[in-house]
Amino acid sequence: MDIQKFESSTRKSEIEKWVRSCESLRAGENPIDITFESYLKKKEDLSLSALFEDLGIDPSLDTIQNIFTLPDSSVRWLIPEIIREALRLGLRKAPIWSNVVAAEQSIKGLSTVIPHINMSDAAPKYVGEAETISTGTISYGQKTVKLRKIGRGIKIPYEVRNYVSINVVSIFLQDFGIKLGHAIDALMIDCLINGEQANGSESAPVVGITTPNTLTYADILRIWVRMSRIGRVPQIMIGGETAALTTLNLTEFKTTPASGTIPPGTDPKLKLRTAIPTSTDYYIHGSMPANQQLIVDSNSAIIKYNAQPLLVESEKIVSNQTEASYATLTTGFAIVFRDGRVLMDSSLDFDTTNPFPSYMDVDALEQVT
Q1: How far apart are CA 59 and CA 48, in angstroms?
Q2: Which of 20-34, 145-159, 314-328, 329-343 comes out lowest in average pLDDT?
Q3: What was the pLDDT predicted at 136?
Q4: Which DSSP category does 287 fall into?
Q5: Strands across the sheet with 292-296, in order?
Q6: What average pLDDT score do residues 123-134 get?
Q7: Residue 219 pLDDT > 90, yes or no?
Q8: 192 near 302, Cβ under 8 Å?
Q9: Model pLDDT, residue 259
C-alpha cells in the first residue's frame, strides 16, 4: 500500500457516493445490473485499475485487510464491489442461459404478467368472386410468471482477509460465481422442460424416436425439419453426459467432409431450401434427465426476467473470526412459444405413443381449402 499516494488522492472521499449511486441503480424502478467499473467509466471516465493506482492500492500485493485499515473509512465501500465484480466474472464465465434466452427483461416485483398467444385456426381459404372472406382465430390470454431468489453465503477466514492478495482471493470468488451460474442454468432448464405454469400448460412437447433406446441421426433430423417448417429454426441442443456421448458418437456428427469438397463420382443435384441447421451448439448439463435432450430455437423459446441484479452483502462474525459475504439475485424464466423447443426422449416410441403434438401439425396450415 502506497500511503503517500493514498493521502494525496482527491478521489478517496468520493467512493461511498459512487457505490451508493450504483446500489440505487441496481434497486431502482427498473433495476440495472451495472458494475462499479462501468459506472466509473460512464460518470468519471475512470477505470477501476486507474482508481486503484490513484489510491495507492496494488491488487497483486495488497489484501482486503489493507483496505480495512486505511484511515479514510469511505474506501471500505470498495470491498463489496471487489467481491461483487469477482462473483460477476464467474457468473458470466460458463453459463448456458445467456446463449439460450431470446431476451432479458428487467421487472419490479416477484412476479409479472405476460401475454400468451395461440394460433388456432388461421389456415388460408379460397375466396370466390364477391364472396365474404372467412376469418380465422387468434386467441389471446395472460399468464403469470413467478421469480425466485437464488443465493449463497461464503465465509472468508481472517487469515485469508489478512494475508492473501485481492487478486488471488478474486480467483476463488470467481469459482463461487460459476456455481451461481450453474444454479441459474438449472432454473432455465427446468422451465424449458416443465414450463413456468403449475398446471403444465407450457411444458415442452415430448417426442419419441423411431426405435426406442437406439438413437439415430434421422430422429434428430425429423425434429429439425418439423421445427424449421413452423418457423422455429433450432440452433441449440442440451443434454446430460450420457445422452451427449450417444449423440456425438453418431456417424453423421463424427465424419464431416472438408468444406467445399464433393465425394468422387458424385454430381449433387439436391439443394435443401427449408432452413434446417447446418450446425448446432451442444451444451451438457447435469440437470437433464438421462434419456432426454432439448432441441431449442433460441430466438423463440424462453425469456429471462430479472427483478434484482447480483446483490453482495457482508458481515463480520467475531465468534469464528470470519468475514461472511452473501450473494443473491432474483430471477426467473418464461416460455415465449411452446413449440420453440422440443424434448426428445430416447426411451419413447415416436410412432405409437409420442409423435408430434397436434399444435405442431404444420400440414394443415399449408393447405388452401
Answers
A1: 11
A2: 314-328
A3: 56
A4: T
A5: 206-209, 341-349, 292-296, 236-239, 281-284
A6: 66
A7: yes
A8: yes
A9: 47
Compute the distance between CA of residue 343 and CA of residue 276 in angstroms, rounded to an integer. 17
Cell of 94: 460458463
DSSP secondary structure string, 309-367?
EEEEEEEEEGGGTEEEEEEEEEEEEEES-GGGEEEEEEEEETTTT----GGG--TGGG-
- pLDDT tens-digit profile of 81-118? 888 888 888 887 778 998 999 998 887 777 777 766 65
Q: Annotate 193-209 with DSSP letters as a single string.
A: HH-SSTTSTTPPPEEEE
CB atoms within 10 A of CB 108: 12
Local structure of residue 133 (DSSP, 8 states): P
Contacts of 94 (CB under 8 A, 6+ apart): 178, 181
362 grid coordinates? 404444420
Q: What is the pLDDT of residue 143?
A: 76
- Per the structure block, which three cell numbers stand in for 189? 432448464
pLDDT at 298: 94
Q: Quickly count: other Cβ atoms within 10 Å of residue 61's Cβ.
A: 11
Neighbours of 157 (CB within 10 A): 13
Out of 136-140, 155-159, 218-222, 323-327, the most confident range is 218-222
Q: How many CA atoms lie within 13 A of 336 on its CB side?
A: 19
- CB atoms near residue 315 (< 10 Å): 10
Q: Which amino acid is at 364?
A: A
The answer to whether the CB of 246 falls within 8 A of the CB of 219 is no
Q: Cα(208)–Cα(227) distance, rounded to whole angstroms?
A: 15
Q: Of 102, 118, 11, nearest to 55 (Cα)?
A: 11
Q: What CA–CA distances, in Å, run from 126 to 34, 110, 131, 260, 301?
A: 55, 48, 10, 44, 33
Residue (of 21, 54, 53) closest to 38 by Cα position = 21
Q: What is the pLDDT of residues 303-315, one digit of tens each?
A: 998 888 888 887 7
Strand partners, 149: 330
